[in-house]
Description:
The chain is an alpha+beta fold. The chain has helices at about 60, 65-75, 80-90, 100-105, 110; strands spanning about 5-10, 15-20, 25, 30-40, 40-45, 50-55. The protein has 2 domains: about 5-65, SH3 type barrels, CATH 2.30.30; about 80-110, no CATH class.
Amino acid sequence: xxxxxxxxxxxxxxxxxxxxxxxxxxxxxxxxxxxxxxxxxxxxxxxxxxxxxxxxxxxxxxxxxxxxxxxxxxxxxxxxxxxxxxxxxxxxxxxxxxxxxxxxxxxxxxxxxxxxxxxx
Length: 120
C-alpha cells in the first residue's frame, strides 16, 4: 500500500481529530490517506484535508494487517549491558556536542571528578 494512495474505510471507527483532540466517528466509506504509523496509532488525512489519529486496534478498518501480532513475533529477548549503551552513544553525531565529551562521560576520570550527565 502506497502512502499517497487513497483508501476507503472498511467500517466506521473512532478517530481523534488533530490538533483539536476532538473525538469523531468516521463513517465507513470515508476516503483516507495514511501519512504515518507510529507504534500504536495511524495518522491519516481525509479527502477533504482533516487529519485524524486512528488507534492501531482499528487497523482492519483501514484495510491493513494488525501490527500487534507482527510486533510480538519480532520481539526477542536481549541482554542489557553497559558496553552496549556506550557503543550506541559513540554513534551519535551532534555538531554542538564534541564526541570527546560523550565518550568520556563514563570514563574513570569522569567518575573521579564526579561528572554527571542528565537526560531530560
